[in-house]
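Audit log entry. Action: structure prediction of a protein-small molecule complex. Ligand: nicotinamide-adenine-dinucleotide. The ligand was supplied as SMILES and no pocket hint was given, so placement is left entirely to the predictor. Protonation state taken as written. Sequence taken verbatim from the request; no trimming, no tag removal. Recorded inputs:
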Amino acid sequence: MKKIGLIWGDGSSPEIMAQAKRVLDAIQDPVDPFVYTDIAMGGEAVDKYGDPLPQHELDKALAQDSVLLGAIGGPKWEGLPGPQRPEKGLLRLREGMELFANDRPAKIWPQLADASPLKKEITDKGIDFVIVRELIGGAYFGKKETKEVNGELVAVDEMPYSEHEIERIGRIGFETARKRRKKLVMVDKHNVLDTSRLWVKVFDRLKEEYPDVEYSTMFVDNAAMQIVKDPSQFDVIVTENLFGDILSDEASQITGSIGMIPSSSRGKTKNGLYEPIHGSAPDIAGQDKVNPIACILSAALMLRYGLDMEEEAARIEQAVEKVLDQGYRTADIWTEGTTLVGTKEMGDRILENL
Ligand SMILES: NC(=O)c1ccc[n+]([C@@H]2O[C@H](COP(=O)([O-])OP(=O)(O)OC[C@H]3O[C@@H](n4cnc5c(N)ncnc54)[C@H](O)[C@@H]3O)[C@@H](O)[C@H]2O)c1
Ligand SMILES: CC(C)[C@H](C(=O)O)[C@@H](O)C(=O)O
Ligand SMILES: [Mg+2]
């Protein structure tokens, strides 16, 4: 029995999750079908329970073999204080599941080269790298405080990192590089930040254990520039939580659209979390416009890494590839000469090609 938690999410998210679930339903073993459990998180949970991730919903997530998430949040909950915001539910889920490593691939599909904002001479060199983002440390989880000092408000977000937190994500970075083209760049800001200087120290120790991996560091501002100047130079980027959040959105867009990029998060326990890197796209919610591919590819990663179903994962990825070959595009990846389809029709086409 394979237990899958489904977080339907907010905004456009239920639309993409519906397509991912159709794909999962179609690919499951009829003799041993998936057992699904819906988990309320984010805005949905705020509305239902006044809490973005009540303990009972986190417990449900912890009881699954894997969890698939669309995205949470939106303007409806914008005014809420930090601890009650939908995003806090996601952070608590990542922390509760101890998901310290988040893989965010940036790979250009040749069919989508025209959708990339980069010049053809740059995309022709290839874009195929992965950002290994530390997920449960740094400014997201440090002490937060807003207080009045000398008649004005002062806000503080602490950004703590300890050696063991850096070492465990560092190992994932080196191991990931070892399985790929053996090139690891640790992105930091060690010219300014103490945390980054500790990252350098820990990585200098670790690199001795991975002599087969070519290791270097790069400042985050330079990395942001290099990602658009020459993305082909990157194989694996490992970085702290906030830098990884920002750089992965940038990296997604150069491959054509943020609507194409899935992610997988792993940690101490065997159950992982699989989610597109994009948000709830509230601006296009309810319009059958949102691209479901990142969510469907996240479901494929869940089958591969969470449920040991490599063959089925590959079938989903091949179906997506065929649909792109056939020229079907949602609005975010549409270019002249291709066929515009909505969210549901994109799901139909992927199902036809499974
Ligand atoms: N993992 C998550 O749940 C997650 C991630 C990022 C943002 N958020 C939340 O989502 C809400 C909206 O944030 P935002 O607008 O900054 O980011 P967003 O990623 O939701 O949207 C940014 C832009 O990209 C477009 N876009 C995103 N995904 C798309 C897709 N699959 N297909 C087509 N277009 C797509 C949107 O329409 C929008 O124009 C916020 O509440 C934010 O906190 C959640
Ligand atoms: C919604 C938000 C908390 C989240 C993050 O910053 O990690 C999102 O932007 C992401 O990239 O998954
Ligand atoms: Mg983000």
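Audit: result stored. The chain has a mean pLDDT of 96. Residues 73, 87, 90-91, 245, 277 surround 3-isopropylmalic acid (ligand 2) (CB under 6 Å).
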